[in-house]
Amino acid sequence: MTVSAWYEGHTDTPVIVTTPAELDALLDDVAALDGPQLVQLLQNGDMAKPDLSVGFDGGRGVLRYAGKTEEFYSKGGTFPLPEYGEVMYYFVTGEFEYPDDAEIPASDARAAAHEYLASGGERPTCVEWTREGPTP
User: Fold this and answer.
1) Which of 4, 27, 41, 71 is 20 to 30 A away from residue 21, measured at CA?
2) With bands split at pLDDT 50, 70 and 90, how would you rate the model's confidence at 135?
3) Cα atoms found within 13 Å of the Cα of residue 108, Cβ hemisphere only
4) Which residues pair with 57 in a beta bridge?
5) Taking CA 41 as the corner, what is the angle to CA 131 and CA 61, rounded to the nearest 5 degrees?
6) Residue 24's closest CA among 47, 45, 48, 3?
7) pLDDT of residue 113 exceeding 90
8) How many CA atoms lie within 13 A of 90 on its CB side?
């Protein structure tokens, strides 16, 4: 499967990923950005298919899997809330709030991205999910 990826510095033209090594390089680039950052992964660049957003902030990560009618968020609860009280990640210039218990180890977020690539865009099974979004 081919995945198109958009993230800080790659918003006009996506990065195309077809191999696990290319995905690792992409995730390394996102993890090296300042602060909590997101990358959006789309199957073959198709906005009509479910997408996976993967976020990194040091040793922490988050996931959001969005289909046509429902969204799922990673469920962790192993990390305390950030000192500013919200789990917030950034996609280019936008901020996206995640549920309070959405942060998981960055290695688990990376594994989920690899499963998304290998499965052809299915929701990864290597992590726990919740349908509950952030509290408004």
Assistant:
1) 71
2) low
3) 18
4) 60
5) 60
6) 3
7) yes
8) 12
